[in-house]
Amino acid sequence: MNEPGFLDYYRARGIIPTRQDLTDRVPHLNRRRALYLQLGIVPAFLAGRRVLEFGPGPGDNALFTVLGNPETYVFVDGNETSLEHIEAKEKAGEFEGVAVEKHLMDFLAFQDDRTFDLVLAEGCIHGQEDPAAYFSHIAGFVAPGGVLVTTTQSFISIFPEICRRMVKPVFARRHPDFDDQVKALVAFFQPDLKSLQGMSRLHEDWVMDQILHPYRKFTFTIAEAIDTVADSFDFLGSSPRFATDWRWYKSMDGSDPGINDVARSCHAAQAAAFLDYRITPDQVGACDGQLLERMCEKAFDLHLEIWRDDDVARLPEFADLTTEIAAMAADASPGTARSLIDFTHGIRALAQGDMAADFGSFPTLYGRCLQFVSFVRRPPVSGQAS
Ligand SMILES: C[S@@+](CC[C@H](N)C(=O)[O-])C[C@H]1O[C@@H](n2cnc3c(N)ncnc32)[C@H](O)[C@@H]1O
Prior knowledge:
The chain is of the alpha/beta class. The protein contains 15 helices and seven strands. The protein folds into two domains: 6-153 and 370-377, Rossmann fold (3-Layer(aba) Sandwich), CATH 3.40.50; 159-214 and 280-364, no CATH class.
């Protein structure tokens, strides 16, 4: 493994740690349907359409998309294991009646003269060395009037997960073998995983992907996504739906700032609310989102060093920084601050060798880790239907 990043890690280990628990498929399909509605993708949109999905992983999410009866479904993934899972689904008849194509390659190497009605890139942009360059390349395949979907995350939204990653040095020292680490961490995180409503990923996959995955810069924010494609796309929807659009319909004649600006400013105003999924923005008081993002970035950078070197001795340094972040969030969201302080007590005790350390209310704290955003490609001539 020379470069940290999705592909190097997954390929070196022969894994695709994003498998859903599909014992009962119904909740999974319900979730995907509700998500697509938040993104503005109504069921009738898919019939007879061309779909292109980058980074499908095991194809569990495609199981819903294909129910809309697209004409063509093209998958691009650089991990053999991902495409093997998709092939197994194909053999099991999951994609019957749909022309499926699979391309094993880096996203940037994919070229095609066709354009597509729906282009998906879920959970696979933020880990790239240059996320905007990847997103821009991917956006180039969307037909006029077609929809582009991606996921985003900020330093704020992943901060609780970054805190969790700080237990890894302790476990790596006690369990040098990777599989043993996975087992021990699955057991350790049971309170966290059980508290998470809607947790649908296999627990060992969550550990491999969230805790043991070597990260580099791991963000691609909503603002960055909008900025990357604003020249030719309009913001369409998101999950969560953070944008409220109060423009008068008659003012939307092309001379107003447009939906991309509305989405940008709604997100900026609510940035701090992405720190704690347990609450909604109306429950969060005033907080300087930009400053909070910078503090969380500082903590992220420190975590990279501690995680890489399994440097248990520096865990108190991370706890100190978390205390500062908790202080910043205290007025706006006291419950969030309390959970972060609980984390600092737990991590200090764990660093001292107390494997039964008490993390108080922290196990129930998750950020709004991954968000989804969708865009629609403008027709070539403004004002023309497509
Ligand atoms: C985190 S998984 C997401 C899987 C799935 N979309 C989901 O949301 O559950 C990222 C996927 O993108 C693929 N991937 C990441 N970077 C890639 C790249 N640069 N080129 C090709 N495939 C890549 C990985 O192999 C993996 O299948």
